[in-house]
Specification:
cell membrane; alpha+beta; 6 helices; coiled coil; Helix Hairpins; transport; 4-stranded antiparallel sheet; 437 residues; Elongation Factor Tu (Ef-tu), domain 3
């Protein structure tokens, strides 16, 4: 059967749908391209962390350690600055201090006696503080009396030696006086014999006397002069003895003074040592009461038994300071640290709160560690970043409190970039490193 022209199927064309699809594709690609170039996506460095106190927790330690005498706090106690936390046993230190103070009192009494000997005083002049203390302390009074007895004994011994030398000098003076009288008499005899000798010589020249007479007078004159010489020598020797005694007298007094000065110098050195030791013990005793450095709450108590021994610098407990600003201590990977700087804005998400009710809080980067730190558990390096929540953001917590140790997810905002840059940057980095040895 033959079809007529009117019965043929209509001629359908796909050009219009194709053109429409093509235009839609161009619009989609163009729109995406325009969006990828003109749109901006905010970037952020994600840094996990936790809430901390700005001044950090306070570690309570003792620089020297000791024996626990009393424990006055327990975990979770709220304490104020200056409160006594632990009291160490100070009996040993106080006994040692008592011994040293006794040695210093004895030393002070000896110094008073030596100073009086140095200044050649008649009686000891004690320090007024010692005199006042002796009224209530029999041991000090006994020390003072002992030094008085020693002072008087030494003074009497010196007086006896001085008196003996003075007596010897008096005897020497008397002996010299007697010899001088003999010398005067001999000198008169010498003068008379010399006169007779001259007369006899004149007579001998006139042959009026014998030569033997002249010889006898000359012999007598020589004998008298010999006696004069011996007496003068003896007098000189006695004067020498007197001078020696004078030097001995001077040496006795000088030696007494020098001995006193020498012993005083030794005592002063000893006194310096005792003062230093006393001050050290007083300082140690003053620190037997371990006090709170700040207001806060006690936690992590490490000491539980009285009479237990604590080592020097051993952590005894921790105090979380109160009324101190809370900050977020976050850890930033070292690869992202170049995008973080002080003053940078950040969003803080607290996983401990219901995220549907508690929004993210805003804050700013306050501090960045100067160098990379290392996680003690994993060994991974990181930078510590401190973020301070804005003061007006705390009101968004709706009565909830931030507590130290709460986990926080920090989003540190970086510069905005287009989607195209996000897509191209990894490929650009790949090709920049490609084909390099």
């Amino acid at each position: 059967m033959t079809e007529t022209p009117d019965e043929k199927e209509p001629n359908w064309s796909g050009t219009v749908p194709l053109m429409a699809g093509f235009m839609a594709m161009i619009a989609l690609v163009g729109g995406l391209g325009f969006w990828s170039v003109r749109a901006e996506l905010s970037g952020a460095v994600v840094a996990p962390g936790q809430v901390t106190v700005e001044s950090n927790r306070q570690v309570i330690q003792h620089p020297e350690g000791g024996v626990v005498g009393d424990i006055l706090v327990k975990d979770s106690d709220r304490i104020e600055k200056g409160d006594v936390l632990i009291r160490l046993d100070g009996r040993r230190q106080r006994n040692e201090l008592s011994i040293i103070e006794g040695q210093m009192r004895e030393l002070s009494v000896r110094k008073s006696r030596l100073q009086s000997e140095r200044d050649d005083l008649e009686v000891i002049e004690f320090d007024p503080d010692l005199v006042a203390a002796a009224a209530d302390a029999p041991e000090i009074a006994r020390l003072m009396q002992g030094e008085r007895t020693l002072f008087q004994s030494r003074k009497e011994s010196l007086s006896q030696e001085v008196g003996l030398l003075n007596e010897q000098n008096l005897q020497i003076e008397n002996r010299i006086g007697g010899l001088k009288a003999q010398l005067d008499a001999l000198n008169e005899q010498v003068a008379l014999v010399q006169t007779d000798l001259e007369s006899e010589r004149d007579l001998l020249t006139q042959n009026l006397t014998r030569a033997a007479r002249v010889s006898d007078l000359m012999r007598e004159l020589a004998g008298l002069k010999g006696q004069v010489g011996r007496i003068e020598a003896e007098m000189a020797e006695l004067r020498g003895q007197k001078a020696s005694n004078g030097i001995a007298l001077l040496q006795l007094k000088t030696q007494r003074r020098e001995n006193a000065v020498s012993q005083l110098r030794d005592l002063e050195f000893r006194e310096i040592e005792l003062i230093a030791r006393r001050n050290s013990l007083r300082d140690t005793i003053s620190r037997l009461d371990i006090r709170a450095p700040v207001d806060g709450i006690v936690y992590g108590l490490q000491v539980f038994a009285v009479q237990s021994v604590v080592q020097a610098a051993q952590p005894l407990m921790y105090i979380v300071p109160q009324d101190q600003p809370l900050v977020v201590s976050a850890r930033v990977d070292t690869i992202n640290i170049d995008e973080v700087y002080a003053g940078q804005e950040a969003s803080l998400q607290f996983s401990a709160f219901d995220q549907r009710k508690i929004p993210e809080l805003k804050g700013k980067v306050q501090r960045i560690s100067a160098d990379a730190l290392q996680d003690q558990a994993t060994g991974q390096p990181y930078y510590s970043v401190e973020i301070l929540p804005d003061s007006d953001e705390i009101a968004k917590l709706q009565g909830h409190s931030l507590l130290p140790g709460m986990p926080v997810q920090s989003f540190i905002q970086t510069g905005a970039r287009s989607p195209l840059v996000y897509m191209i940057e990894p490929m650009a980095g790949f090709f920049s490193r490609a084909f390099r040895e």
